[in-house]
Amino acid sequence: MTDDEILAEFRAADALLQGHFLLSSGRHSEYYLQCARVLMDTERAGRLAVALAAKLPRELRQTVDMIVSPAMGGVIIGHEMGRALGKPAIFVERPTGTFELRRGFAITPGTKVLMVEDVVTTGLSSREAMAAVRAAGGEVLAEAALVDRSAGSTIDLGVPFYPLVAINFPTYAADDLPPELAGTQAIKPGSRAN
Ligand SMILES: O=P(O)(O)OC[C@H]1O[C@H](OP(=O)(O)OP(=O)(O)O)[C@H](O)[C@@H]1O
Ligand SMILES: O=C(O)c1cc(=O)[nH]c(=O)[nH]1
Ligand SMILES: [Mg+2]
């Protein structure tokens, strides 16, 4: 799929939002990609996962044992990536603020893991989720995501990163808002507590 075709999927799902958003990292943005709306169409979710899987090097696709995603946003695309790659898909979640394995999910030491996210902005959530996987003994080979919106800030996840599409939407610190955002109330669509 081309970048234009992928963005057309977001627009068709009314998932490209404009307003004033407080992001997971605490930064602010005029734009938000609501991946849950893109993925609520199961056929579209499957199509995007197949396209994302095709971005991965063949050797990585063959070597990976398991998909692990950070909840909530990573769960659906992680599951669809598991289907596309023929691998089990589990998730880490953070009911008390730190990502952990629950629900009987386990990672056997040495398991080769592909992390799957919906959106990567600063990479903070990705790094925290990888720490949980490594603490359980998993070996993180790479990360894949639907959207890399870090474009321009050259984040380093510490492993190879394969986004389906990269978009450069500016983000701002709370004390450095542009005039169009200053004085407007930010909404926080994601579920990170702090
Ligand atoms: O790269 P980052 O700066 O960490 O931002 C991206 C993260 O933010 C969103 O999750 P969020 O924490 O909002 O929670 P959710 O997945 O539960 O909605 C998204 O799903 C990524 O996990
Ligand atoms: O950084 C985020 O929290 C974020 C940005 C975005 O565009 N979409 C999303 O789901 N999360
Ligand atoms: Mg998330």
UniProtKB/TrEMBL annotation:
Any one of the GO BP annotations: 'de novo' UMP biosynthetic process
SUPFAM superfamilies per the UniProt record, alphabetical: PRTase-like
Residues forming coiled coils: none
Pathway: Pyrimidine metabolism; UMP biosynthesis via de novo pathway; UMP from orotate: step 1/2
Every Phosphoribosyltransferase domain range: 46-152
Keywords carried by this UniProt record: Glycosyltransferase, Magnesium, Pyrimidine biosynthesis, Transferase
Similarity comment: Belongs to the purine/pyrimidine phosphoribosyltransferase family. PyrE subfamily.
GO MF annotations, alphabetized: magnesium ion binding; orotate phosphoribosyltransferase activity
Short name of one Pfam family: Pribosyltran
Domain of life: Bacteria
Subunit structure: Homodimer.
Catalytic reaction(s) noted: orotidine 5'-phosphate + diphosphate = orotate + 5-phospho-alpha-D-ribose 1-diphosphate
Annotated positions binding orotate: 121, 149
EC number: 2.4.2.10
Protein name: Orotate phosphoribosyltransferase
Highest classification ranks of the organism: Bacteria, Pseudomonadati, Pseudomonadota, Alphaproteobacteria, Sphingomonadales
HAMAP family for this protein: PyrE (MF_01208)
PANTHER family the record matches: OROTATE PHOSPHORIBOSYLTRANSFERASE, URIDINE 5'-MONOPHOSPHATE SYNTHASE
Enzyme class: transferase
